[in-house]
Each structure stands twice: as C-alpha cells, then as structure tokens.
Specification:
The complex is a heterodimer of chains A (about 120) and B (about 110).
Chain A: E1 5-7, E2 10-13, E3 19-24, E4 31-37, E5 43-50, E6 53-57, E7 65-68, E8 75-79, E9 88-95, E10 105-106, E11 110-114
Chain B: E1 4-5, E2 11-14, E3 19-25, E4 33-38, E5 45-50, E6 54-58, E7 61-66, E8 71-76, E9 85-92, E10 99-101, E11 105-110
Parallel strand pairs in B: 2-11
Antiparallel strand pairs in B: 1-3, 3-8, 4-5, 4-9, 6-7, 7-8, 9-10, 9-11
Classes of the chains: A mainly beta (about 120), B mainly beta (about 110).
Chain lengths: ~120, ~110
C-alpha cells in the first residue's frame, strides 16, 4: 500500500541551527502538507503546498520556516534557526485532490528535539 | 477563533460494547470531516471521512454528521482492546486544504 515516508525519524539539533525535514509523498498525490504536534498537545497545521507554491499557511509558519519540492518526489520543511519551542513531532501528509473530496494520509513523523 | 472541540476523556468501554465519540466545530463553512486514530507516539491514521449529512459506515465504524448542529460523531461497534487509542476529529476549515484538529478523545477498551 502506498505510504508517505519521512526522514529522519528523530533529529536532535542545537538551538540556532538549521534543520531540513524530508518527506516523500504518495506518488500520484498533488497536495502536500506539514503539521506539527508538540508533546501532549493537538496536531497543528503549518502549511499546504500545491502546484509548486504555498496555498495556505498558519501563523506558526513564519519567516523561519520554508518548504520546497526540490524534485518530483521529495517535499521538504526547513527551519532556519531552531528554537527550543520548535521541539515537536512534525508530520508530512499528502492527498490526491482537495480535502473537500478526499482524505490526507500522514507519514510516520519526524521527532525534532532542539537542545 | 475557529475551534474543534472534543471531550478529552478517557472514555472507558468494555470489550464488545459500542464506543461513541463526539466532536463539535465552530466554522459553518467546513465541508469535510475526518476521524483519525493516534496511538501514543505515532502518527494519525485515517479511519474515515464524511462530507454529507447523515451516516457513513465502514466495517465496525460509523461516522455521523449533522451540519445544522455542527456536530460529528464516530461510533465503534464491538470495541476491541486494540481500539484503545486517541481519536482525533479534524475539519477542513472553510472548505479549504487546512485541517483543524481537536485535542482528541482517549478511548480505553477494557477486557
């Protein structure tokens, strides 16, 4: 069964460092998303991406964050200068069409720990 | 502030019983509604989604949507210990591509 894959599964970084989280969405999907979940809290939307551009972003997704689809298979989230409060599980998701008509499938997540 | 509300639980049901999980939402423009299951430390796993008023059944699961009351529920029949998890309600606000999640309801199915 097709699945969204994320690497690495766990990333430890020092405060102020840049991190890149990687995702391979399901191959025929056109919409890509990043969500995060701080430990013990709810899943929060960060950004959606369609047709090589950001379609929506949340207040969390400030100038420290960026997304890119560098090739036909990968979708990345970059955090330029990590803060302690960026520590969370980051989930990539994808859907084949708009969420009005279908569901989003989530990857297994990357646990980011900022020390 | 658009909200998705769920009772955090825990909701405890005996094995074989029906578990009823509820969710309310504030954005009347929402068009699709999703139920995800999340085991501790794992990613959300889709159970089902619904966008029309009424019931939608898939195996032991039934989702119920009432847009007038801004209410969506999930029934789990013949609950099993493996159903013990946190159930997340998610809503696509304004009919867009952003999911807003509730805090989740923890379900415990007891032997």
């Amino acid at each position: 069964e097709p699945e969204v894959t994320q690497t690495p599964s766990h990333q430890v970084t020092q405060m102020g460092q840049e991190v890149i989280l990687r995702c391979v969405p399901i191959s025929n999907h056109l919409y890509f998303y990043w969500y995060r979940q701080i430990l013990g809290q709810k899943v929060e939307f960060l950004v959606s991406f369609y047709n090589n551009e950001i379609s929506e972003k949340s207040e969390i997704f400030d100038d420290q964050f960026s997304v890119e689809r560098p090739d036909g298979s990968n979708f990345t989230l970059k955090i330029r200068s990590t803060k302690l409060e960026d520590s969370a599980m980051y989930f990539c998701a994808s859907s084949d069409v708009s969420l009005i008509y279908t569901e989003a499938f989530f990857g297994q997540g990357t646990r980011l720990t900022v020390v | 502030q658009k909200e998705v509300e769920q009772n955090s639980g825990p909701l405890s049901v005996p094995e074989g019983a029906i578990a009823s999980l509820n969710c309310t939402y504030s954005d009347r423009g929402s068009q699709s509604f999703f139920w995800y299951r999340q085991y501790s430390g794992k990613s959300p796993e889709l159970i089902m989604f619904i966008y029309s008023n009424g019931d939608k059944e898939d195996g032991r699961f039934t989702a119920q949507l009432n847009k007038a009351s801004q209410y969506v529920s999930l029934l789990i029949r013949d609950s099993q210990p493996s159903d013990s998890a946190t159930y997340l309600c998610a809503v696509n606000e304004g009919g867009g591509n952003k999911l807003t999640f509730g805090t989740g309801t923890q379900l415990k199915v007891e032997l």
